Amino acid sequence: MSVKRRDQVSGQLTTGHEWDGIEELDTPIPKPFVWGYLIAFLVALIMWIALPSWPLPSSMKWPYITSYWQGLLGSDAERVERRLAELAAQQKAFDDKINKADLAELVNDPKARKLLMPAGAVLYREHCAMCHGPDAKGQPGFPNLVDDQWLWDGEVEGIYTTIKYGINSSHEETQSAEMPGFLKDESLTKDQVRDVVEYVRSISGQEHFPEAAKRGAVVFEEDGACSGCHGEGGAGGLGVGAPNLTDKHWIYGGDRDSLYRSIAEGRKGVMPHWVDLLREAEIRQLALYIKWLGTPEKQVAKVSSVSIPTTAK
Fold first, then answer.
1. Same domain, 38 and 116
2. Is the pLDDT of residue 312 over 50?
3. SS (H, E, C) 220-232
4. Which site from 20, 205, 245, 307 is most exposed, i.e. has the minimal number of CB atoms within 10 Å?
């Protein structure tokens, strides 16, 4: 039989229960907690009545419950659906204007630049920055997008095509470019590869070994191993995605080790196609944004006749 007694330390009664010499105090729940519980219960009850909540049976056939309590205040679902439809219509009007506009005309329109740059920046951060960097200046293996050096057509229409279909992507209309591995394919010997490295360093204004560079020039130019794509003198070929080798811009590096690896093993960079992931208007805005990144704003001086709605978000 449990016997309640008063605890000598706290002065409170015990419950009379004892476990291995430990007794439990008969302490009531603090009143603030009781009131908090009651208030929370009342608020929940009011919300259940005022707002859509409980499922309701609407028939005597399975699944029986096919409706729900609408609430005394009603539901905002219809209002939200109407607003979403309005926004979709605005977006479609905006997209239609972008899709019908001439990109070459838009790129020289300061009003279009001011309107579309913020949206383009968001698209770039979400889909491009992880490879080309947050400042679009590239990183090893990924080209700089803000200079004037392009592997393919650097005009806005060319940029649009590259974004849409990609380079070496899985799309049937992709642009294709591959640097063969001349040592791997046994087209050149190790000594010839080293000579070509010195020649490339010579035409790009870097320190080099003159005698080796002369031998490399023969391999590069006369034998056609490299000039067929990179052009005479290594100035590049936009039509086949071959970079200019005479400047200071390098995707994979211009040091001896990087050049040797590129020539010996080859390169085949991949730019994914975005036609299946982005809307047509988004691809066009991205192309404009990237072109504008490398174009000083003062050069955009011509106002086009394109009227783009400014209400779309």
1. no
2. no
3. HHHCCCCHHHHCH
4. 20
